[in-house]
Amino acid sequence: MLGMPLRRRLRLFVATVTAALLALLATGTASAIQPRGITDEAHLMNDLFWIVTIAGLVVFGLVGAALVYAMIRYRRQNDELPPQFHGGGKIEAAMVGVPVLIVIGLFTISMIILVQIDDKAQDEALTIDVTGFQFSWQFAYNLNDLGTNTDPNAEGTIAVIGTPANDPILYMPVDEPVEFLLKSNDVIHSFYVKDFLYKLDLIPGRVNSFTVTARETGDFSAQCAELCGTNHALMRFTVRVVERDEFDAWVAAEAARQLGDGALVSTSGTQGD
Amino acid sequence: MATVAVPQLSGYHRPAVLDWIMTVDHKRLGILYLYFTLFFFAVGGILALLVRTQLAVADNSFVGNDAYNQIFTMHASAMLFLFIIPVWAGFGNYLVPLQIGAADMAFPRINALSFWMLPPAGILMFAGFIVDGGAADGGWTAYSPLAQQTGVGMDMWIIAVIVLGMSSTIGAANFLVTMFRMRAPGMTMFRMPIFCWTMLVTALLQLLATPVLAAALVMLFIDRNYGGQFFDPNGGGNVVLWQNVFWFYSHPAVYIMILPGMGIVSEILPVFSRKPLFGYKAFVFATIGIGGLGFSVWAHHMFTTGSVLLPFFGFMTFMIGVPTGVKIFNWLGTLWGGSISFPTPMLFAIGFVSMFLIGGINGTYSAAVPVDFALHDTYFVVAHIHYVLFGGSVFAVFGGLYYWFPKIWGRQLNERLGKLHFVLMFVGFNVAFFPMHMLGLDGMPRRIAVYADSAGWEALNMLSTGGAFLIAVSMIPFLIAVVMAFMRPKDQPDDPWEANTLEWATTSPPPDYNFDSLPPVRSERPLFDARHGDEAH
Ligand code: HEM
Ligand SMILES: [Cu+2]
Ligand SMILES: [Cu+2]
């Protein structure tokens, strides 16, 4: 009689914990579907994300199941002392061996993917100069460094400058490598585009760079990811990935607007050369 | 009938308050540490509720952007520097001398000094809110050059953190000497209670790492006030240098924040499984291993700076998973084949194991360097931090409080209220922090005061805020249980839990001098041996 309510309470507790663990598992799996990425590099990272997720879920499932099983199977039923087991050589070796195998495996895969991502960096890429400042962004394009459609005789730079109230738009062409040069003159910022699955810091005193190839057109929201002061949360921008001719048309229009007519050897004219 | 005149020693009785202020008794100092740190847990908690209220809905203007930066900075600073790091000194002060069978710490007066450095530092840090420019607002990481820009509250923060660091440095020396020199006869190093071992490694980390932080903070102070330019590229300084020295301290510091919690859990699990800790030596070596590796992974907080040797730090970070995995096996093996009961301390201990497991797994995502490029500085990392520091450390704090309450205050906390507390906190915690994984994957950066409606983050943020308030509600049954306990007389026997270690071999609470006599120490479980003789070995 005395044991009944205790056992019932126990069972309730175990059921709650199991349910909670299962719910976590389910949400974990669902959430894992979220990151997608629109660049070649992001697709690589996404593969790694899945590998880590699967490894994590397996570890979580096994350990969680063992935990719940032990709590039910070995709950106290009488006053008898259980065997006083202290552990031993073989099991302790396994305790070290299993995690070693898991982490070496994951590390190796991470490095393979890291190398592949770095491999993508290419010289002939279109270059965009990104400067972060408190609290917005400047995106500058050098007219003789426009990637596949560069006119070496072109001179001048066009720039898009935002304000906290007016988010700037970063134009870039689809299906070709684009290199970003990141600079800051005040504090540290971080250039974070969720759909690149990538971020890199803008650090006063040094220039960071990375290259991506976008594979989807559209507008992608992005923002600063390193605390940089009062309006850090308002350092938002939009990445607009467009087809090459649309990009060229935009460059031509901006050049005309910012530099006056004739500053740019008409980009549309150099097309198809 | 003959009477004997007993000479009165003195007619003067020191008022109780003075007694507490002048005390050099490790138990009283331990209790002062606990009161102090739990107070700042409450303060930090209120700041957290402000943060969660602001983020509950999109485009909110409950607090302004400036105020928000101060609030989240002071939330983290209070929780880390004024709660979780010193709370272990509180448990350690109370328990280490008792667990090794000593009468006090090695240097009782220095011990009092360590404690009394905390209140002025706490006041100084929070006084930032009333000065011009407000409290520190550069995050608890105080990245330069941002940390050069803000008002005098930042200088107060720097000085406060230096003082807190000095407190824990001399406290660490005290713990080490106590454990090396004052163990009871028969207590070899490998018979020391596992909580003491974790305090020992923690003290070593503090001794080696905290002075580095002090040096960095002094440099920052000079940069701010005397044109030092250590971290200013325009004067030949280096911005990333700050991050290197800061994390050289602060990565070991994350272990300072959790190792004693692991120790507490490793005391509780064996008692309520009625078995020894599975793989005691493996646990000790894993703890030492974590401490050692902890010094070689700092740059994993800097993967996106573009100036880190990625393969090395990625590898070392993964390697930390090995001793961590060993500990999970220690705990599972302890439960396995046991005779397990589930009083409140045990619930918190098992809560710790399950939540820390998640905290280890979601840490792996950031150790995989290319994945960290996506997740760094997003809410995913906020989830990780809290699964280890709240689901881990804070659950261990409460497990320890429920477990040692009868020893420290001579009374039991009500079991029903304790279980209610656990369930509410466990559910509230997961509701508050699990959605942050999804928010991070969906691109929400950390440390932002507002987000746009169009970002689509509102629903999960609302859910998370609900969980945060549920955690706050879970404190109510705890507080009621404490008040109820203090309304009762001290009625606890020496050893209410049938425990293993020496603190249970004396009265509850123990007398000033701790022990009338000590049982012989022939294993890491002297009280178990005394209860069961040799039958069980
Ligand atoms: C298997 C174990 C662990 C691994 C692999 C791991 C890995 C990491 C990594 C790579 C980061 C950097 C993430 C980023 O900023 O992008 C990080 C952040 C952090 N970790 Fe862990 N971690 C582990 C355990 C712990 C433990 C035990 C604690 C503390 C008790 C902890 C506390 C923190 C904190 C406080 C931060 C964030 C600091 C900040 O930026 O404010 N971690 N962890
Ligand atoms: Cu920012
Ligand atoms: Cu770290």
Structural account:
The complex is a heterodimer of chains A (273) and B (537). Chain A has 273 residues and is an alpha+beta fold. Chain A has three domains: 1-29; 34-75 and 88-120; 126-258, Immunoglobulin-like (Sandwich), CATH 2.60.40.420. Helices cover 42% and strands 23% of the residues of chain A. Chain A has five helices and ten strands. Chain A has helices at residues 3-32, 40-73, 89-119, 244-259, 267-270; strands at 126-133, 136-142, 157-161, 169-173, 177-184, 189-193, 198-202, 208-213, 218-224, 236-242. In chain A, the strands form two sheets. A five-stranded mixed beta sheet of chain A has the order 3-2-1-5-8. In chain A, helix 1 runs antiparallel to helix 2 and helix 2 (40-73) packs antiparallel against helix 3 (89-119). Chain A is elongated, with a radius of gyration of 28 Å. In chain B, helix 2 (26-55) packs antiparallel against helix 17. The radius of gyration of chain B is 24 Å and the shape is globular. Helix content of chain B is 66%, strand content 0%. Chain B has helices at residues 16-22, 26-55, 65-99, 108-116, 118-127, 146-149, 152-181, 194-226, 239-256, 259-273, 280-293, 310-335, 344-367, 369-375, 379-409, 415-441, 458-486, 526-532. Chain B has 537 residues and is mainly alpha-helical. Chain B has a single domain (23-531), classed as Up-down Bundle (Cytochrome C Oxidase, Chain A). Chains A and B meet through helix 1, helix 2, helix 3, strand 7 and strand 9 of A and helix 3, helix 12, helix 13, helix 14 and helix 16 of B. One copper (II) ion binds next to helix 9 of chain B.
